[in-house]
Input
Amino acid sequence: MKQSVVLITGASRGIGEALALALLSRGDCVVGLSRGVSEETIAHERFMALNVDLSSLAEVEMAMHRLFETLTPDGLDSITLINNAAALAPLAPIEACAANDIASHLHVSTAAPTVLTSLFLHKTAEWPVPRTVAIMTSGFAGIPAASMSLYCASKAFLNMFVRCVREEQRLSPRPARVIAIDPGMAETDMQVFARSRQDESFPMGALLRQAHDAGQVLAPRDVAARIVRLLDEREADEQPVLRV
Ligand SMILES: NC(=O)c1ccc[n+]([C@@H]2O[C@H](COP(=O)([O-])OP(=O)(O)OC[C@H]3O[C@@H](n4cnc5c(N)ncnc54)[C@H](OP(=O)(O)O)[C@@H]3O)[C@@H](O)[C@H]2O)c1
Output
């Protein structure tokens, strides 16, 4: 039987872990790239964990080169890269952010998904199977928010990156599907941390608490189920940014 392989960054927690579990349960092979690992996924025979700190581009490159030494298109039904991992910190006015923290944020949230997308498309360019790159974005790509300049700007960067790479793929003889996915609000470490911040320099905290109290924050497994449906659907006039 042919196998679908899905590479997911940040599969150790939150939406990424829930996505990995949803895809494993329907028979896909999942490769998780993160620093930690989820006990539920690692117990699965079709899950492979790659220990990668996405703030190090050297580690990102090495992990992809190693992975593609063993991966071939033989027996594959499809291959997908889901750039899910992102940083939220530093959550502070930009003048209060240390240079190292700014650089680390940008590496994890913009440089790593960019480099992973580049390596993935390069290494699979000749593979005769459907290829998909999905990048997790956020409604904050279009909402300027105090203390969230890095997060909002990183997501806006990713949305434009996706739109440009889609244009490139249109010119390719073997185009890959390239999409951004806005998962909406999910109850994860990232969401809980943002909601817990009560200081005046972070007015979004109050809005996130209101959304939580109004029941608008979904369980990661429900968000993951919707993302899997979006990955499976493909409409002729598909938009670059899909919302769950
Ligand atoms: N939760 C929401 O409400 C929400 C809303 C809109 C968009 N999103 C987006 O959805 C995606 C997932 O969010 P989430 O809420 O599930 O986040 P999360 O709970 O904070 O999990 C983040 C994941 O990213 C990984 N990660 C972070 N820094 C890393 C690093 N330096 N190297 C390797 N992996 C790293 C973490 O793994 P390790 O710590 O094990 O390395 C973890 O698996 C993000 O892109 C986020 O921006 C989330």
